[in-house]
Amino acid sequence: MTETGAPANVPPDKGIGVANGTFTEQQQCISSSGGGAQLKEPPNGQTWLRLDEAHQYSTGQSQTVAVIDTGVNTHDEFTGRLLPKVDYLGGVTGVNKDDCDGHGTEVAGIIGADTTGTGVGFQGVAPKAKILPIRQTSPSIKVKTPTDQTDRGAGNSTSLAYAILTAVEKHATVINISLSACLTLNMGPLDQSSQKLLQRIVHYAVNDKKVVIVAAAGNLGQGATCNTQNDNPDPNRPKWIESPAWFAGDVLSVGAINTDGPSPGAPSAFSMWGPWVGVAGPGTGIITLDPGRTSGLANQESVNGQMQTLQGTSFAAPYVAGLAALVRDKFPNLDAYQVMHRIEMTAQHPGTPSGRNNQVGYGMVDPVAALTAVVPGEPNAPATAKAASIPSDVGVAEVKSLSPMMWAMYGTLIGVALLLITLFLVHATNRARRNHRPAAPQHRNRKIYLNACIIEVPA
Question: Which residues are CB-contacts of 339 (< 8 A; sequence separation ≥ 6)?
């Protein structure tokens, strides 16, 4: 154990968290589909977030974003900013240690691709941030001799915990985790000590080392992490939980919103609901880097020359991780909790009394607002605009004579306006007090049951 209480790290080449530590490649690594079409217009999600305007305030140049995923391949749009790769799939003999699956490269592209001067519209959210690739999982790689059904995949909660610790030790300022495990919320005790380790390291990274952790809220449906939606009439009693998104006191969890199709602006049908959802990002109409080659975009060619797109909370999360890098670059004095709070409070809130719901949290993120707004209750908020004296050469406006009826009408309108302003300020102040993430939060222990003992989860 270290002095801070976090477990001492273990070198990633030891295959930590995998029972056998010996893997075999189950399928061929991803390759480019060819392509040829060029996307000159920005994707809908990028337009909705007004990234061009946001980049006038910050590009994330001083930040390092760790991508804990399937790895990140070398790409022209990462030139000079892709840090040495870390691999937690030790013991893979003869297996390519790059991103065999493509998922991590696509996620990293949304975070930090810099396409300046290429003629394409797609651009990463934080195009000047450094990318730290940490390969922690891979559907293409399996344990050679699994001991049981849970031992078949490469990567688990324990290796995820140590991957987070490695990201901290390598000075990441933001960590993106577009991975999740769907766990049943039972009334009886079950045991998952690895979840306790993961929770402890997550808290250490955020609270002690001031690193922002962004995680996907989880997907619903066939082939996804959970098979049914959390549609319990009591939104605070979900049937399922998604880890590590569930550790919402320390993690900024991201749901998905449609940016194309028949219902743009609506919560994506595949996005898992839950009290852990903090905000939402674009989850459909996704365009990113082609992981199968060193240039170009993912799914560049499709039917009739139309771009094929990706979807999922896995791709909503990196939009928010990139935004966290922008905010950290613009406001270096904010700690991790304050960065998350700023992103939540400047999001486009859903129309509920509390300003949030379990589908999209506090709503679609708003990068421009996150980089420019004065957030109530933020200790290190920028100073508000100073009052300026009126120049002496400005003349006095002519005041026209008004009839008594007009004066009465204006008086009524002014009174109503003042009342509305007062109600808005009271509501905003109360909401800020209810939802402010303190720099050193006092945890309310929320008990959940996982697999043999109770895990105390910070609220």
Answer: 212, 324, 327, 328, 331
Burial of 116 (0-12, 13-18, 19+ CB in 10 A): exposed
In the predicted model, residues of the chain with pLDDT beneath 70 are 1-28, 32-38, 90-97, 143-154, 185-194, 222-225, 299-309, 380-459
User: Angle at the Cα of 72 (from 70 to 75), degrees rounded to 5?
Assistant: 150
Q: Residue 85: count other Cβ atoms within 10 Å of its Cβ.
A: 17
Q: What ranges do the domains of the chain cover?
A: 12-25+37-377+444-458, 403-435
Can you give the pLDDT at residue 180?
85
Confirm if 63 and 211 have CB atoms less than 8 A apart: no
In CATH terms, the fold of domain 12-25+37-377+444-458 is Rossmann fold (3.40.50)
Can you tell me which residue has the tokens 């955020």?
A: 206
Q: Report the C-alpha gap between 89 and 365 in whole angstroms.
A: 34
Q: Which of the residues are catalytic?
A: 69, 103, 314
